[in-house]
Amino acid sequence: MRSNQKGSLILLITAMVWGLAFVAQSTAADQIGTFSFNLLRCLLAAGFMLTAICLRDGWNKLKRKPKKQKPPVRDSLIAGAWCGGTLFAGMTFQQMGFAYYPPEAAASGRAGFLTAVYVVLLPIVRIFAGKRPGWLTACSAGICLIGMYLLCMGQGFSGIYLGDIFELLCAAGFTAYILAVDHFKAMDGLWLSMMQFLAAAALSAASMGLAGEKAEPSLWLSAWVPLLYVGIISGGVGYTMQIWGQKYADPTVASVVMSLESVFAALCGWLLLGEGMSLREWLGCALVFAAVLLSQLPDKKPRPKKT
């Protein structure tokens, strides 16, 4: 299996894990403040990663395997700050978007589509960095965005909400996050994941104080199910798998594969909750899947222009 395909397979599983997170986040937005929610999810994820590191080190010691060397403290802090800071921005703007949507807006669908705008933002940013994508990769990003629109925006844009602006900022945050993970992908995945969640938790705690959000354990307990899912499964497992998958996949290809999270969210709603899907939505799913398949084909990068 080629490395790009191996990374895409890992990211495909990641997208499945994230697919259910939109429902959990939308539910929790009605109960807990944005920064409180992100603080708790990041602390749960960091605790899960610390447990995973201890179990791995204990297993290696039992099997007398070489112990994984921890990266230097300075490198850990820099990587954690970059990845955690961009992750905090993406998560915060996404959760704020959910909180600012009015009841009549299809919050999950709009948020899913606007978050997926990173599939177009990423190749644009990389062009300015001197890394032009091949034409197949660029086409797959465009097809993916069209598919996401058909899937998530069944009623079209009936006006612009404040939540839409936050979701677009969220897309920019996740674009920066994907690039940060790609930059530090040589670091041990479990360690990098724990450091980023600790950094994001610290930023969430500081923002919580600045925003005047009160710590209300009774509300936290009322939302323990979505918190556990987004903290341990979507956070600890999902984001660590993203780091692992990006070790093998090109960032632009990774963004296309990860955009399948909204497709899986729609399919889970159809299978588990009995939510109907129109022909338009099925077509959107098909286009996103086609974009992912297209992104896996060998891509010849454009030749530099002769001077």
Major sheet details: none
How many whole angstroms does the radius of gyration measure? Answer: 19 Å
Q: Provide the domain count.
A: 1
- List the secondary-structure elements in sequence, H or E: HHHHHHHHHHHHHH
Strand content: under 5%
Helical segment count: 14
Q: Which structural class fits the helix and strand makeup?
A: mainly alpha
Measured as a percent range, the helix fraction is over 70%
Quote the distance from N terminus to C terminus. 38 Å
Gross morphology is: globular
Oligomer: single chain
Characterization of this structure:
The protein is 76% helix and 0% strand. With 307 residues, it is mainly α. The protein has one domain.
Quick recap:
The protein is mainly α and 307 residues long. Helix content is 76%, strand content 0%. The protein has one domain (3-295).
Structure characteristics:
307 residues, mainly alpha, 76% helix
Topology:
Blueprint: H1 3-19, H2 21-29, H3 34-62, H4 73-100, H5 107-115, H6 118-128, H7 135-152, H8 162-183, H9 189-211, H10 217-222, H11 224-246, H12 251-258, H13 260-272, H14 279-295
